[in-house]
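User: I've been trying to design a sequence by hand for this structure and keep getting stuck. Would you show me what you'd pick, starting by listing the structure so we're on the same page?

Assistant: Good idea, let's start from the same input. This is the structure you sent:
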C-alpha cells in the first residue's frame, strides 16, 4: 500500500475464499498479505480486495474436470443440482445455474439446456445408479 503518512487504510474482502492474513490496518505505506483457498469448482471465480479507494481483482481458474449434471458449477453432482433441474422442468427460472452451462460440459444430453434428462441423470447419480 502506498499512501500519505496520515492516511489510514484497512483491506477488506467480501469473498470468504480470500482471507487477509496480515496488514489488517495501517497508515502511510504498508503491506497487505492475503491467502486464497483452493477452488474445487469447475468454473473460474473472481473476487476482490478493497483497500481505500483501490480495488484489486483475484481471478482463480476452476478445475479442469467438469462433471455431467453439475448444474450449479460447484464441482459436485448432488441434490442441489437436482433441485435446479426440477425447478427448470416446473417452468421456473432459478438462479444458481452456472454461467455458460451449454458450453461447460455439464450438459447431460448435449442439447444446451437444463431439462428432464438432467433431472433423471442427477437423481440416478445421487442414488448410486450412475457413476
Amino acid at each position: 500500500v502506498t499512501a500519505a503518512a496520515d492516511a489510514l487504510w484497512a483491506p477488506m474482502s467480501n469473498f470468504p475464499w480470500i482471507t487477509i492474513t496480515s496488514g489488517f490496518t495501517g497508515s502511510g505505506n504498508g503491506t497487505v498479505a492475503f491467502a486464497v483457498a483452493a477452488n474445487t469448482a469447475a468454473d473460474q471465480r473472481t473476487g476482490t480486495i478493497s483497500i481505500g479507494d483501490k480495488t484489486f481483482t483475484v481471478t482463480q481458474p476452476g478445475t479442469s474436470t467438469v462433471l455431467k449434471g453439475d448444474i450449479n458449477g460447484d464441482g459436485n453432482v448432488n441434490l442441489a443440482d437436482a433441485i435446479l433441474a426440477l425447478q427448470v422442468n416446473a417452468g421456473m427460472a432459478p438462479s444458481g445455474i452456472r454461467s455458460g452451462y451449454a458450453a461447460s460440459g455439464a450438459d447431460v444430453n448435449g442439447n444446451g439446456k437444463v431439462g428432464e434428462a438432467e433431472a433423471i441423470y442427477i437423481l440416478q447419480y445421487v442414488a448410486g445408479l450412475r457413476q
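That's my pick for every position. To get oriented when you compare it with your attempt: DSSP finds three helices and seven strands in the chain. The longest strand covers residues 45-51.
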